[in-house]
């Protein structure tokens, strides 16, 4: 039995290798290097479950720590998030300082000053608002030309906590401080915006969609990974495995891992049987972990629409869907719009829709 040291399908897990995200990482980095106050310093990363949003946030954190940035690592939208963010900035500032000290010769009074400046007095801690303390620490870091990046995960547009953070962030920007923010979430959770303040901010924010990975990148990664693990696979089956991921990073991990598992109980070779078994297992896992959760928040009517779509092999005409649902085309259009907003379906052409979540059609046909 071989130990799978390469693939590990789990949400938020840093992959052993980040496949095919060079372009988006560059876009994010360029945004962070823009002058304080630029629009690109606030970014909203949108993508379906398993598309690699959380992993990208961690990756960017690591990269910019090397570029005079102090980072509040990804904080999930939740109660007290502002306090958590301040703690993380303090913690990261200390690490930053320790690293800087290693490179200093002799005592450096300047850096020692910064060290004191990131602590709060008891009075400040007890009587001042988190907004006050956040601004205080950002100003202190700015004096030493240190930038601050705030990372927010699982954005919920209607959250009061997020609204509070955004107002605080806008005040920091207003002061001309070198701050930046990257937020990640499902397209659905930002489209149901109830909150004006958040909506206005989102409208002015740069939006980056993270879509499927390039299949060629996945294929190249698979070839290398299987060879490292001493697993034999024909280039034909390897290409097929890459295609079966449909570009989803989560499926990339699942299929890779299941291929390793089934090959290792079969003399370390992927033959057609081993391949079929692994793909089947991966699709089941994917449908349980992703398709089920994707459908959970939808209304019965939304699901009727999707079921009507699943009758077609590939794309569906809105007209046909309406007929299958027994409703007028106008009525069906309402659901089409809602589902498009959630990113679960896409509209390749006028009057035509297609599933945007891998294997969702198959899941609906079977459930
Ligand atoms: N670019 C990538 N290359 C390889 N694996 C990735 C990549 N992005 C994400 N993954 C893997 O995919 C899975 C889902 O990633 P995650 O960041 O949790 O997705 P999301 O936050 O969008 O739901 C994890 O197992 C992760 O390791
Ligand atoms: Mg995530």
What brief labels describe this structure?
Arc Repressor Mutant, subunit A, alpha/beta, three-stranded antiparallel beta sheet, five-stranded parallel beta sheet, 367 residues, binds adenosine-5'-diphosphate, 57% helix, 13% strand, Helicase, Ruva Protein, domain 3
Overview of this structure, please?
The protein is an alpha/beta fold. It folds into 3 domains: 188 residues, Rossmann fold; 80 residues, Helicase, Ruva Protein, domain 3; 69 residues, Winged helix-like DNA-binding domain superfamily/Winged helix DNA-binding domain (Arc Repressor Mutant, subunit A, Orthogonal Bundle), CATH 1.10.10. It is 57% helix and 13% strand. The chain is built from 17 helices and 10 strands. The strands form 3 sheets. Strands 2-3-4-1-5 form a 5-stranded parallel sheet, sandwiched between helices. Strands 8-10-9 form a 3-stranded antiparallel sheet. Strands 6-7 form a two-stranded parallel ribbon. Helix 7 links the parallel strand 3 and strand 4. It is globular and about 65 Å long. 37% of the residues are buried. The model has no long low-confidence stretch (mean pLDDT 91). Adenosine-5'-diphosphate binds next to helix 2 and helix 12.
């Amino acid at each position: 039995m071989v130990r799978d040291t390469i693939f590990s399908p789990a949400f938020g897990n840093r992959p052993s290798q980040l496949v095919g995200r060079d372009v988006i990482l560059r876009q994010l980095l360029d945004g962070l290097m823009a002058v304080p106050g630029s629009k690109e310093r606030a970014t909203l990363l949108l993508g379906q479950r398993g598309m690699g949003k959380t992993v990208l946030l961690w990756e960017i954190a690591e990269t910019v720590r090397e570029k005079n940035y102090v980072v509040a690592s990804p904080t999930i939208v939740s109660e007290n998030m502002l306090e958590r963010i301040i703690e993380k900035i303090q913690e990261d500032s200390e690490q930053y300082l320790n690293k800087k000290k290693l490179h200093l010769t002799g005592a450096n009074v300047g850096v020692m000053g910064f060290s004191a400046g990131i602590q709060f007095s008891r009075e400040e801690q007890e009587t001042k608002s988190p907004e006050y303390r956040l601004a205080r620490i950002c100003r202190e870091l700015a004096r030493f030309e240190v930038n601050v990046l705030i990372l927010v995960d699982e954005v919920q547009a209607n959250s009061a906590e997020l609204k509070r953070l955004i107002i605080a962030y806008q005040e920091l920007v207003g002061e001309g401080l070198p701050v930046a923010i990257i937020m990640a979430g499902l397209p659905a959770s930002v489209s149901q915006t109830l909150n004006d303040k958040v909506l206005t901010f989102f409208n002015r924010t740069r939006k980056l969609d993270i879509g499927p990975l390039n299949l060629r990148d996945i294929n190249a990664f698979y070839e290398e990974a299987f060879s490292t693990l001493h697993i034999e696979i024909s280039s034909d089956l390897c290409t097929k495995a890459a295609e079966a991921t449909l570009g989803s990073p989560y499926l990339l991990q699942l299929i890779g891992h299941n291929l390793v598992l089934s090959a290792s109980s079969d003399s370390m070779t992927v033959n057609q049987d081993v391949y079929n078994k692994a793909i089947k297992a991966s699709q089941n896992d994917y449908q349980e972990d992703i398709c089920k959760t994707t459908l959970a928040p939808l209304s019965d009517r939304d699901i009727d629409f999707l079921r009507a779509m699943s009758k077609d092999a590939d794309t569906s005409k809105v007209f046909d869907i309406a007929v299958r649902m027994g409703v007028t085309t106008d009525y069906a259009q309402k659901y089409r719009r809602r589902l498009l907003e959630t990113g679960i379906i896409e509209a390749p052409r006028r009057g035509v829709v297609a599933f945007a979540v891998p294997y969702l059609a198959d899941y609906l046909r079977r459930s």
